[in-house]
Amino acid sequence: MTALIIGLFLFLSTHSSRIFAEANRAQYIAHYGEKKWKLAYSIVSIIGLGLIIWGYAQTRLDPVYLWHPPVWTRHLAALLTLPAFILLVAAYVPGSRLKAALGHPMVLGVKLWAAAHLFANGTLADLLLFGSFLVWSIACFSSARKRDRVQATPRSAGRWSRDFIVLIVGVGAWGVFAKHLHVMLFGIAPFG
């Protein structure tokens, strides 16, 4: 459990620098440069992610159950992750109407992913992992929207053709992940 907690702290603290330490982040970038900032950010994030994965795998060997969710919540989680995948893709396809309307679709996708997994899992490790990401995504989205308003961030209208690409790629990625990768990586078949 310790590795999971340390990993969550490292990963989410680096990803929270714009939420809680915008001035310190800007000062670091001004002093050391953006490349060094990105390098340090990436190294700490990768170490944190590695510890999250390893720590979570270790907790699955001797899980501490807080509740036993009904089987139907697995299916609900699988369905809720579909829009999460679409939102994730929308973050990387420039010019989509979805990205223009939401501004930060990846953070919303993380929010859906975390909530979906909280519904379907009932161990202490699940609560720590998915609960932490849910709290982070709520704070991050709120902070990003506030920053957008203060900076009067312009958004293009976007094109429907880009949304079509987002939808096709998102649904395809979700299908491959749900059907093949989830069971390979985590030993759980979402629809099995």
Describe the structure.
Residues 4-190 form the NnrU domain. It is found in: Membrane. The chain has 192 residues and is mainly α. It has nine helices and no strands. The chain folds into two domains: 1-62; 64-192, no CATH class. Helix 1 runs parallel beside helix 8, helix 3 packs across helix 4 (34-59) and helix 5 crosses helix 9. The radius of gyration is 18 Å and the shape is globular. The two termini are 28 Å apart. The mean pLDDT is 92.
Describe the structure concisely for a colleague.
Helix 5 (72-90) packs antiparallel against helix 7. With 192 residues, this protein is an all-alpha fold. The chain is built from nine helices and no strands.
Task: Draw up the topology in text.
Layout: H1 2-14, H2 17-20, H3 22-32, H4 34-59, H5 72-90, H6 97-102, H7 105-120, H8 124-151, H9 160-186
What keywords describe this structure?
mainly alpha, NnrU family protein, 192 residues, transmembrane, NnrU_dom
* Biggest sheet features: none
Helix content: over 70%
| Classification by helices and strands | mainly alpha
Which radius of gyration do the C-alpha atoms yield? 18 Å
Pattern of helices and strands = HHHHHHHHH
Range of strand content? under 5%
Uncertain stretches of 5 or more adjacent residues? none
